[in-house]
Structures are given as C-alpha cells and as structure tokens.
Amino acid sequence: MYEPPVPGSPDGQIVTLALVKSYLKIEHTAEDVVLSTLIIPAAEAYAVWYTRRPIQVLALLPTVKQAVCLSCGDQFLNREARSQGKPYEGNPTVDAMLWAVRDLCSYACEEEVYINPLLPPPLVRSYE
Q: What is the mean pLDDT of the chain?
C-alpha cells in the first residue's frame, strides 16, 4: 500500500543549530557541540513527547519552533545549575505553547494505549 510522505523537515529536526544560535544571539562556535548534541535534541524530544505528534509535523508549526528555541535557551542558560545536581524545573510558557498543538485524542484514537511514565497506570475494568 502506498503511503504519501509526511510533509515537514527533511532532516527530522524542528529547529536548526543556526536558528537556535540566532535566537540565543551566540556568534562563536565554542558552544556548537553542546547545542547540537545535548540541548537541541533534548528540547525537540520534549516537544515530541509532550505533544504526542511526529517530529515531521511539529517542524511545520512556528509556535513549536518558538517553544523549542525557548526551551533551548532555558537549558543553555541553566546548564551550570544542572551540572551541580539541581533539577531542571521546566518552563510553563513552553508547556503552554506546546499545549495548543497537543494531540488530545491519542488516548482514544490509537490501537495501543499511550502510557505516560509520569502518571499512574490507567485503571482496567473487567466486565465479565
């Protein structure tokens, strides 16, 4: 069966290193490795997890790009605190921006039940 390709980012990214560096106003290349291997993938993974949508779809939405850039900025500015063992609290503005595109029907629409590791397991009722 033929399935048309999903439109979106051809390289599977929501934001590029150049976009994040421009957003953070970083002009040097000293932080490129940290940004491209740790911070950007973590922010994109959070967006995919939170919205429950594929990265190719999220790459098309300007609100998601803004949320990922904002998350990258928070993680970049707080990277020293995280190395000292302090947990990253997250950003409620990022969550609010991602909430607008969250797939709220994925619990009922998919054959497999989506299980959030941060929530208690769903109750299973038997009607036998």
A: 77
